[in-house]
Amino acid sequence: xxxxxxxxxxxxxxxxxxxxxxxxxxxxxxxxxxxxxxxxxxxxxxxxxxxxxxxxxxxxxxxxxxxxxxxxxxxxxxxxxxxxxxxxxxxxxxxxxxxxxxxxxxxxxxxxxxx
Length: 115
Known about the structure:
The protein is an all-alpha fold. It is built from four helices and no strands. Helix content is 79%, strand content 0%. The protein is elongated.
């Protein structure tokens, strides 16, 4: 499958694994469930989108992945404020979210022929 060769997919998978590990001790099941679901959504939508036959469908799912990244970043900000996630972990993960977002933007542009 082509998506497995994409750096953006690989990085988003690594981020999702890290989030599962970093939030394993969070006792608030609702928060932990939401942040891990958001993190899973990113590589899942990249994979689904890249395997679609049309540029329009590819872009649709890549934009969904970008939305999940925004959701994930928000959850890190809130998680830090309520002392569920340490500041350093939040900082590192937010930086990786920004990198993945940039990579997705470039991928979307390349699919639309604007990149």
